[in-house]
Amino acid sequence: MATINSNFLKLKAGYLFPEIARRVRAYSDANPAAAARIIRCGIGDVTEPLPAAAIAALHAGVDELACRDTFKGYGPEQGYEFLRQAIVDHQFAGLGIAADEVFISDGSKCDTGNILDIFGKGNVIAITDPVYPVYVDTNVMAGNTGEADAKGAYAGLLYLPCNAANGFVAEVPGEHADLIYLCFPNNPTGAVATRAQLEAWVTYARANDAIILFDAAYEAYIQDPAIPRSIFEIEGALECAIEFRSFSKNGGFTGVRCAYVVIPQAVTGSDGMGGRVPLHQLWSRRHCTKFNGASYPVQKAAAALFSPEGKAQVTALIDHYMGNAKLLREACTAVGLPVFGGVNAPYVWVGCPAGLSSWDLFDKMLHDAQVVITPGSGFGAAGEGYFRISSFNSRANVEEVCRRLQALLGC
Ligand code: MLT
């Protein structure tokens, strides 16, 4: 008899976004007339067409595949050199990153989950609360936790509370951790970390011989020039951090799929017998065994985002979504709710009206305003009492959401 990975049985309910989709579908089926009015500000999925530079490169890449002389089969598992070098030149110039330290993939969700393959058992894992649920769920699946309690907190994880008092930026803990997940700009709260806050984390990681898993998927949304865009801007991070980046939210590649992980050669882990092993070597080995590379036209399209016209088009996309974030922030503020994020990030994090839990508010917004938001408790126990609005939408839809918010929650 085949046995299962019983760690899966510890997972709470379904994954957050399919669960939201299920509830929206049930509402739509029961209320077909209202369904047409639904505006989705839940999952952070882009809505605007791909930048023209990416479209042109995709077409050109496909045309190359149509011709014997330029046809390509399997590419390098770690990604084509042209894309790895473009990433270094345009995203990490002067930070001491080499092209062979960049691993191209098909998404940051997969990367942040798969990275656990290269770590052993028994690590103390620090996770912020609220948090992008993938970090928690993949640790549960890997057997790195015990059972969840009534609030959904898993035994064995070191939770780092993020709240209004600390500006939703986790402080370094008093106790030891081996692996630390940080996400800035933050999903779900939209918070960003200052240079001093990141310096404190790097100092902590070095003192504890820990590794920082730094998710920078929303880096392109940083507006404040004083906020670091990469953990590698912090001295010492080249020895203790791995960074995850994506083309999903800057180039609108959520459906195209392309991302990357940066693992400096100097980042090592213990082999448990007194030796040190470069994590780069392990991830490269893993990639070769489990991944055959992102598709060639997709990597061409990603590289095109770094062309002068590609960069201008990405900036226009970011400006569009950040304009939406500003409107959503203003609308929530106008109805008297506490508002966070949405300044250097596409997510606006909002306190629920008094007396409503985050799922209560989800239902109210869906049933009475036909607006889908994400309930804060879906990101962890500390997210209770908050909701997240995504600014990934058309301007017309966001303006309509603002009107409906006012009508529903304004006095
Ligand atoms: C979100 O809404 O949190 C994101 O879309 C999740 C993701 O990028 O996987």
Architecture overview:
It is built from twelve helices and 15 strands. The protein has 411 residues and is α/β, with parallel strands linked by helices. The strands form four sheets. It has a seven-stranded mixed β-sheet, with helices on both faces. The chain has a four-stranded antiparallel β-sheet with strand order 11-12-15-14. Strands 1-13 form a two-stranded parallel ribbon. Helix 7 (195-207) links the parallel strand 5 (179-183) and strand 6 (211-215). The longest helix is centred in the C-terminal third of the chain and has 27 residues, at 308-334. The chain is globular, with a radius of gyration of 21 Å. The model has no long low-confidence stretch (mean pLDDT 96). Bound molecules: D-malate. The site of D-malate has 5 residues, from loops.
